[in-house]
Fold:
Amino acid sequence: MKTVYSPDHLLRNAKTELFGGELVPPFECPERMEYVLNQIDQESLGEVLSPDDFSLESIYRIHDREFVDFLQGCWSEWKAEGYKGEAIPTVFPARGMQQRVPNHIEGKMGYYAMAMETSISEGTWPAAVSSANVALTAQSLIQNGAESAFALCRPPGHHAAGDLYGGYCFINNAAVTAQAFLDQGAQRVAILDVDFHHGNGTQAIFYGRNDVMFLSLHGDPRHAFPHFLGYQDERGVDAGEGFNHNYPMLPNTNFDTWGQALQDACGKIAEYAPDAVVVSLGVDTFERDPISFFKLTSDDFKRYGATIACLNKPTLFVMEGGYAVKEIGVNTVNVLTGFEGK
Structure:
C-alpha cells in the first residue's frame, strides 16, 4: 500500500491547548507523524509519496468560501490586533444570540469555532491545505486503479464542518476526498469513521445526502467530546434519512463490543454497495490513549483492518486522531497490514 505524506505538516506546530483548565502542549503534535513513518518503514508497508498540488476548488466543494477565507487570514488578523499569544476564541454565538459574522477577529473566531481547545498559530493554514493535498493525492491513486492507499494527513479533519473548525481540525479531508470520488464518477461513497471521537463535521456535511453514507464508531457523546453530536438516533434528514449511522459506546469498551459494532457497520456498507470506502482512521481507541476511554489493544487494530478488507472495495485510509504517541505508529500500521492480510 502506498502512503502519501508531506513534511509541510510541521508548519502546524501550535504550543497551546486548553485542557482541564490549563494551557498545555497540544496532544495533536508533529511527533505523531514521525512514529507512523518509522513504523511504515519498519514494516515495509510500501512507497511513501509526496503530494501533488490541488486548487482550492476541491475544498470549496465542501467548505464555505467565507470560512476558507477566515482560515487563510485568521493569523494575520489576530497579530494585527497586537495579541501576543496563539489565537483562541473567547466568545461564541450561543442560544438566543445573533448568528452573524462580526468584523473583529475575536468575533470571527467565536463564530467559526466549535470549541476552544484548538489554537490557531502561524503555519496552521498552509499545513491544513497540505493535509488536504495529501488526501486528494491518495484519492487520485485509487481513482487511477489502486485498490487502497493511505493519506498520512496532519492536521486531521473529521471535526471540521462546512463552516466550523475545532477538535484539531480545519479542512475535512475525508469529506473532500469523498466528494472528489463523486465528482469523478462514483455514484455512492461510504465514510467509515473509526476514530474514538465522533466525526461531527463529516456527519453535518452529508446529513441531508444519500450519495454518501456516514458510519461512526465512537465514545458516547454523553461522556466524550464533541458531546453535542453523535447520538444513535441521528439518522439523517430529507434525502439523507437512513444514511447516517452512529455507534456510541460507553467507557471501557473493549474489542468484543467495538468489533460487533464494526461488523454491523460493515454489513450496512456492503448493503449500500458504494463505489469506494473512505476510512477516517483514528487510532485513539487504544487502551492507553491519554484522551479517550476505549480499551483496544495493538493486536485488535490488525484484526479490524482485516474486517474492513472483507468489504472488497477500493479503500482510502485518511489519518485522523491517535495521541498515545509511542504506540500510534504500531497501531496505525497494524490496521493497514491487517487490511492487506500481512
About this structure: The chain has one domain: 2-64+123-339. DSSP finds ten helices and ten strands in the chain. The first helix runs from residue 31 to 42. The chain has a mean pLDDT of 98.
